[in-house]
Amino acid sequence: MQYQMSRFIGSDPTIRIPAIGLSLRVRVQPSVNDGKFCFIETTNQPGFGPPLHRHPETEVFRILEGRYLFEVDGQRFYADEGDVVSVPGGSAHAFVNLSAAPARQYILIAPAMDAARFFTGLGEKLANGPPSIEALNEFGMAWGVEFLGPPISAPKGN
After folding, report:
1. Is residue 4 part of a domain?
2. Going by fewer Cβ within 10 Å, which terminus of the chain is more open, N or C?
3. What is the torsion angle, in degrees rounded to the nearest 10, for the CA atoms of residue 124, residue 129, residue 20 and residue 17?
């Protein structure tokens, strides 16, 4: 049986997508477990999060630092450091970092996707500013990702 030890922080290349305030590292590649899952570690800048979207993979978010507002299938709730949020595959979801500082998450994606390729391609798509929802969906089609709307906003007076 073959095992892979997780590499130390700093050894995985960082993928940066400034348009959505995201930087991430793929911590476990799908190739080490026959595509059953992958892990990514993300940092979200204050006030940023992804557009509302859905995909067939389940995601399990572990909040490492900060406070987030999540929306899953129209329901909004807060998640703080130490919380775990499970988003079933096919659910429309988004989140936003409510903290005054960068916030971090560790995310399990199952079954796995090639997160490095997906997020690198998304970064290229967003390099010149936010594209139309149609352009995002053209990109997402190859990945089974449907973009449904803009990122959610932090509530006033948070």
Report:
1. no
2. N
3. 30
DSSP string, 27-75: EE-GGGTTTS-EEEEEEE-TT--PEEEE-SSEEEEEEEESEEEEEETTE
Q: Give the domain extent around 41.
A: 15-151
Place of tokens 């630092």: 65
CATH number at 114 reads 2.60.120.10
CB 113 within 8 A of CB 38: yes
Closest to 59 measured CA to CA, from 49, 45, 69, 72: 72
The domain tally of the chain equals: 1
Start-to-end CA distance of the chain, whole Å, equals 50
50-103 pLDDT, tens per residue? Answer: 999 999 999 999 999 999 999 999 999 999 999 999 999 999 999 999 999 999
